[in-house]
Design brief:
With about 500 residues, this protein is of the alpha/beta class. The protein contains 21 helices and 10 strands. It has a 6-stranded parallel β-sheet, with helices on both faces. A 4-stranded parallel β-sheet has the order 3-2-1-4.
Length: about 500
């Protein structure tokens, strides 16, 4: 490699590290024209494609790099990461093994293998490989953070925190470690530290975008009378339903509040009009507001602890006219009436650090075993794909007596009105669960193993929603035991 070629590759690598991917790709593509046989160019192009989430192209590019230099262990480690993102975990492990064979002193290969084992739920085994990486490099920050994540999965939370602390001690700017600390602290009820570390969501790599930075950030709650404050919803619909309760608290400072929310929630959250100007879009100049804050930063501002959670319910209400209309769908019978939601769809859960949204969902065939409980009329409140179509296709064979209400539910106010006519809601962790809790209806939440911090750790009740009962999954992906517990309690409720 000549000096000019090396200089260009160094510049390209610098651009990659700074996430200036367009410039990196431009430099590498130009260099490729004159040096098509240089495997490093192909490998760097693969890294660019991977950072752009174009893993199919990244795999083709890394394979070309390996064809040109089949003895490059780093390239095999890169390939393993790409295969992991494509969900081809077994192939990824083979690639990491080859990386370790070719480059036994390269700690990233061991760390990356540990990450793939985590994705396969092999947490104990993943710890072995993180420790190997840390033996090679005792200051390997990412390995400490990843090891902490594995220990969290194993519910060895104190050990996990030790590893997160090591990561931040070595690199006080390592945002992901603060983020994972925050999630663990919040789940443990340590809100004092948890809310502070939860602010790392704005600087860690994820799609969350900090909005309205041109307006000064709200940092304290004093002297806000007549101040104009913009509060904006930042995450999912369920998060907005859960944390909109803080708008009433904020209004007690006599500030003039504008609350910016998704359009789907405008009608549902209309009771908040008495405390704020509720909008789904806004045209403004920066000087129109004195301060702004993301919605989920309000608990930090209010110094919320477990004992001070504002949990007066209901804090939302229903449209009485809609309730009267929807009651026509309710079957007249002596049975208790139970609404069911078994899927929250497959959106990415970047807000709480997890990419695989399907982990919160249950297969219709599995949850349909609830039909065995006598004395219950079941109503499907399921909206959205693929669950809505799944019910249409499988209903007659799997759950013929469930009453499908999808055609009645045009927006959240319809869902709220129907919930009000039912005795109980049984739901996975999705926006409807939050809605039932905000309405003060009994809600049984079927909660995945890697529980969202909002439901806290090791609890069957929720300080956020006094009418909620939480059924926690004890093993990753294992819903059978959870459903059996629900059946036992449902039998007792139906007999009461």
């Amino acid at each position: 490699m000549n000096q000019d070629n090396s200089f260009i590759l160094q510049n390209a690598l610098k651009c990659i590290n700074e996430r200036d991917l367009a410039k990196a790709e431009e430099l590498l593509s130009q260099e490729l024209e004159s040096h098509p046989g240089n495997p490093d160019i192909w490998r760097f192009l693969s890294v660019v494609a991977a950072f752009k989430s174009d893993y199919v192209s990244a795999l083709k590019l890394i394979n070309e790099a390996i064809n040109l230099n089949p003895k490059n262990g780093v390239a095999y480690s890169n390939k393993g990461n790409i295969l992991k993102e494509l969900g081809r975990f077994e192939e990824a492990l083979i690639s990491f093994d080859e990386a370790i064979r070719l480059a036994p002193s390269y700690p990233e290969g061991y760390n990356n293998k540990g990450n793939t084992l985590q994705d396969l739920h092999l947490y104990e085994e993943s710890l072995i490989w993180y420790d190997k990486a840390l033996t090679l490099n005792p200051e390997y920050v990412e390995a400490y953070c990843n090891k902490g994540n594995a220990l969290e999965w194993l519910r060895r939370h104190q050990e996990a925190m030790i590893n997160f602390d090591k990561a931040t001690a070595l690199d006080p700017q390592h945002v992901n470690a603060y983020w994972q600390k925050g999630l663990s602290q919040l789940a443990n009820g340590n809100f004092e530290l948890g809310w502070q570390n939860y602010e790392a969501r704005w600087t860690k790599p994820n799609p969350l975008h900090f909005q309205h930075p041109e307006i000064p950030r709200l940092e304290e709650l004093t002297n806000l009378a007549a101040k104009k404050i913009l509060i904006w919803a930042e995450q999912g619909l369920g998060d907005t339903i859960q944390f909109c309760r803080y708008i009433k608290l904020l209004s007690q400072t006599d500030a003039k509040i504008t609350f910016l929310i998704p359009e789907q929630l405008l009608s549902l959250l209309s009771p908040l009009h008495q405390y704020c100007d509720l909008r789904s879009s806004l045209t403004y100049q920066a000087q129109d507001f004195d301060f702004q804050s993301p919605l989920l930063s309000l608990p930090l501002l209010f110094g919320t602890t477990l004992k001070s959670i504002p949990n007066e319910i209901p804090y939302l209400n229903i449209n009485a006219e809609k309730k009267n209309r929807l009651e026509a769908a309710i079957v007249t019978s002596p049975n208790i009436k139970v609404g069911i939601i078994w899927s929250g769809g497959f959106r990415l859960l970047y807000s709480d650090g997890y990419l695989a949204g399907h982990r919160r969902n249950i297969e219709l065939d599995q949850i349909a075993s609830l039909k065995e409980v006598p004395g219950v009329d079941f109503y499907s409140l399921q909206k959205g794909e693929p669950a809505e179509s799944e019910l249409l296709i499988k209903k007659d064979a799997v759950w013929p007596n469930i009453i499908n209400c999808a055609h009645l539910l045009n927006d959240f106010t319809d869902t709220a009105a129907l919930i009000e006519s039912l005795d109980l809601i049984i739901s996975v962790d999705t926006s409807t669960a939050h809605l039932a809790g905000a309405l003060g209806k009994p809600i049984w939440i079927l909660n995945r193993y890697d529980s969202c911090w909002r439901w806290l750790r090791g609890r069957s009740e929720s300080p956020w929603y006094p009418t909620a009962t939480i059924y926690q999954q004890d093993l990753p992906g294992e819903w059978g035991e959870v459903i059996e517990r629900v059946k036992v309690d449902l039998i007792l409720l139906a007999k009461a």
